[in-house]
Structure formats: structure tokens, C-alpha cells
Amino acid sequence: MASAAEEVLQCFGHVDILINNAGISYRGTILETDIQVHKQVMDINYFGAVALTKALLPSMVQRRSGHIAVVSSVQGKIAIPFRSAYAASKHATQAFFDCLRAEVEQFGIEVSVFSPGYIRTNLSVNAVTGNGSNYNVLDKNTAEGRDPHDIAMVMLNCMSRKKKDVLLAGVLPTLAVYFRTLCPSLFFIIMASRARKERKLKDS
Question: Which end of the chain is more exposed for a tag (fewer CB within 10 A), N or C?
Fold first, then answer.
């Protein structure tokens, strides 16, 4: 990341807008997932964005200008069963960039965190499973997700208005985020029920 950032700065002199968008998803149970898979997901989703941001941040601070964005997920705000590695990486991402926003405000640098729901991409197909192999399934929710171009345009619009934290999810995921905060005990019961149902479907 450091060498890539250095090459970009040598070519263009500075970066006005950095969008951290690389990511990998995960499907599996905590009990059956190798620790290396957790590390792999964290390395890409969290440390990748952190490393690139830190590599370019000094130049933004020096210019007292810049906008840093990261594509997190609604799962950076709530966690659902069988997505532990992914949700953990997105929670960490949310926390890091919330801290960064506060620390660089004095330098005139903007930080935006985008938390989309399902987007119509190959994210689920390329997801890793508990043993590190590819999931190779296009989930129904992903297939019916929002168009990536639409999400990109909304992001650009929000960045132009210097929005700091943007939830780009449907009604149910958005309600779940508030539900998790306002009534956590009931939210946990619902998630446990969901886990049992998904486990039955996989075992049947």
C-alpha cells in the first residue's frame, strides 16, 4: 500500500478523494471457521483500507485538504448469523474511520463512511467459507440488490454534500439498525431464531 500510494503521489502530486472500496465477504459458522479465514477477511476489509488511508493521509494533512471515503456495510452496524468474520471487519472499519474523522477535522479533511445493504455484485460468489474455499453461490438477496451504478451516484452526491455517515440500506435493514440500539434483547432473540432456521435449511 505504501509503495502504491507513493507512486500515485509521484504521478499526480496529491489525492483529492480516496475511496476505499476493496472487500471480501464470508459465509460460515464460527465453530467451523479456521482462524486464518478470520485474519484474511480482516486483512482485506479492515487493514487494507487502514493501510492505504495512512499512506496517503500525511499528504492530505500537509495540504490541509482531502476527502476520505470507505465502503463499509450495514453489517458494520448490526451483525447477523454466519457472517461473523465479515461483520467484525466492518465493525472495525466503522470504528477506525469514526476515530479518523474526529482526529483530522482540524486539518480540513472530510471522512465519509457508507454502509450499504445488498448490492448486485459478485460479492457472495467470491465470499470465503470456513475452510477458505470460495462460496460460489449468488445469494438471492445479492441478486436482487441495488444497482452498483446507483449506489456510486448516491455516494458521489453525498460526498459533494460532505455527508459523514450514510446508511444505504432498505427499510428492514435500516429498522434493524435502530432496533439493535433501542431494543437489543429482542433483536438478539430474533437473530438467534434466524440462526436456527438457517441451520435447519443447511442441514436438510
Answer: C
- Specify the pLDDT at position 162: 97
Q: Which of 179, 181, 160, 157 lies closest to 168 in space, CA to CA?
A: 157
Instruction: Find the mean pLDDT for residues 2-31.
Output: 95
Answer yes or no: are the C-beta atoms of 117 and 169 closer than 8 Å.
yes
Tell me, yes or no, if 86 is annotated catalytic.
yes
Q: How far is it, in rounded angstroms, from Cα 53 to Cα 33?
A: 29
3-state secondary structure of 18: strand
CA trace torsion 86, 87, 92, 98 (10° rounding): 120
Close Cβ partners of 44 (under 8 Å, ≥ 6 residues apart): 22, 23, 24, 89
Q: What is the mean pLDDT of residues 147-161?
A: 96
User: Per-residue pLDDT for 15 more than 90?
Assistant: yes
- Given 86, 118, 135, 178, which residue is catalytic? 86
Cβ contact 98:91 at 8 Å: no
Q: Please name which of 45, 75, 50, 59 lies closest in space to residue 6, comparing C-alpha atoms.
A: 59
Span 149-174, mean pLDDT? 95
Closest listed residue to residue 73, CA positions, set 82, 86, 64, 60: 86
State how far the Cα of 151 lies from the Cα of 15, in Å rounded to an integer: 22
Q: Is the distance from CB of 150 to CB of 120 less than 8 angstroms? A: no
